[in-house]
Amino acid sequence: LKAKGESVLLAAFAGKAAARIKEATGFEASTIHRMLGWIGDRFTLGSLQDQTVIIDESSMVSSMLLAEITRRNPKRLVLVGDAAQLPPVGEGQPFHDIIHYFPAIVSRLTTCYRATEAVFKAATCIRNGDQPLMQDESEHEKWKMVATGDARSTHQYILNLAKTGYLDFSQDIILTPRNDDEANGAAAIVPLNKDLVEIANPRESSDTDKFKAGDRILNTKNMPNLDIWNGTTGTVVSVEPKGRLYIKTDYPVTGDDGETTTSVTVPKEEVKHFKHAYALTVHKSQGSQYRKVVFVVLQRDAYALLDRAMIYTGVTRAKQECLVVGELRAFADAIRRNTSKATVFQQLARLGA
After folding, report:
1. Rounded CA gap, 264 and 246, in Å?
2. Which of 58, 89, 139, 260 is the most exposed place for a label (fewest CB within 10 A)?
3. pLDDT in tens, 80-120
């Protein structure tokens, strides 16, 4: 398209996915919010009339956000993604619904260059509703499932992995569907991060700040003035006595001078929106990939949180190795659960609107 002289915009919901587009194509890419000129309470971009817009990781895009793009009337809109992944956290699931109700405008990629690799083969089984092997290894990838027991036993197993050096949190991640577990205080995001930070970056008795240099962190708020968004991850470089946080982001952002950088200064009043990020929910990991993924599956989450899309999305975050831990019956049950999301789009399509 660019060779033909067309103006093309590349974007994705998550900054991490946008950075991967740039890495893969060599062309500039941004978050959808940045493309549309989000300033905290509204989108400021006028028209997209002369633009071809290509959106990657489109399964993450809500109906509201897609509407903001389409109402700006782009010359051409191309949505790229995997409909087997989790639907958006927000309203609707337009990418999934368009594929289902308008197959004539859908193209499918059928060639995969990872077809013989272990994690890819396991993910393909899951996508098709089949059970993967308990263990597999290929030239570049490893896949393994370990029955580690209930939440407390699995929590301790993960801590032991961290203590033995199996994980490098600058490139590896723990994924679990649950934020907290008030009953057991185990194998959920809050208790895992609380314990893992003491292993990965131990505190001294004199440390009083929430964060210290070397901590892995996650931003939970869109901050357009810093070009960091909900889901941005990075590493703390230093903490200023006045409370400002200096971080190195995992992907380049645009600085005040318009140049790309990975160095960001977070004002004191915004630090409260950051959390530790040694363990993440599957939703927060979307758009990212990691060297190793340790994926937690437990019976407590079998019906409220786990389904095929959750499992598939989690394991496909792994580039080289995926280790599934917990109660493996929950894993098997989740693959058989292919849940659906009722949307206004579906109702309109059935009515022929």
Report:
1. 6
2. 139
3. 999 999 999 889 999 999 999 999 999 998 777 667 899 99
